[in-house]
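Predict the 3D structure for this chain.
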Amino acid sequence: MHILVVHQYYLMRDRPGGSRFNEFARLWTAAGHRVTVLAGTVDYASGEVPERYRGHLVTREDDAGVTVYRCWTPASYRTGYAGRALSFAGYAGSATLTAPRIDDVDVVIATSPPLTAAITGWLAANARLRRVPWVFEIRDLWPESAVTTGVLKADAPLTRALYAIERFACARASRVNVLTPAFREDLIRRGLAPAERIVLIPNGADVSMFSPAPRDNEVRRELGWGDRTVVMYAGAHGRANALGQLLGAAERLRDRPDIFIACVGDGPERAALEAEGASRGLSNIRFHGALPKERMPDVVNACDIGAAVLQNNPTFRTVYPNKVFDYMACERPTLLAIDGVARELVCDQAGAGRFAIPEDPEDLARVIRSMVDDPAERAAMGQRGRAWVLANATRESLAARYLQVLQELVTS
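Done. Predicted structure below.
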């Protein structure tokens, strides 16, 4: 079976970020299938275009047996919302032009955001009159999340156009894959897709890569964490992540020199967050920037508590953040400032963390104190978290479930 994946953010080699489809593609290839990816040329974490892609409409490369076409993407991603929209449109155009060059495709997956990937996916599935089945995957509810975070106005023409694309994709796709049960309920409630065409294959962890190891490692020494109890956030530094709440918590923890908050990652808000921390004179929080993907297991193991935080936004009650699966896989308890399905999974089902009210620095500081002061319970939460991941969310099991869906579409 030849699987074509339309994924603007397919992770580049040696770059930090979400590697869900990199791992799926590797596992599908190892199972004897052919995988081709249409990806963008902009590293979404840094906003940079690597030198090897500059000046080319398409760059073909081999990634451990997976054929990846890096399609021209405007380098305007980090220049504001208009620049990001231009980046999305540029990738959609170049990827759509590239799709007909790919022969013998049996099934297409288009994963969103950006929502424009759905158009490319539909066109790729119908390129050269081949009409193969395709899966529309929803990693985040767009444009709803953009509206609720204030990026888009609900009644703006662009917003209405994006809602139209969402309706089109859900109606035309052979299957719609969602990453959380709340997404499924939302689609059914709005009448976008019938229950029988929706599948749920969530995020998970690569347990061969993320596994428990001693906290005293090279990363901890390199980053200067010493013997302090480290609460570590790993991920994007954007508007939706609302990392200002960690600055507020750090301010309320000045009296605890044994507690340190570390932020690893990059994004458009990072410089402002660093400046704000410096202006407040906070020495108990640091923004380390992005680190290579292969170092992230050591980064997670070097911390004592993994943090997952988002804006206090009703839309985010529907999401599972990727990072919690990595924390749990490494037996690190989770400080979770995200309500909804993430809280149900991490705190209620897995018993692997504690909940703090999103964007409430006072409550964040309170929960951090309680976790730091109870090392035995932290260890127990970590053990329960890994056990839950092994039983429910390994990348291998999720890749096999996804492959079964694709094979059923191809043979039906």
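The longest strand covers residues 34-40.
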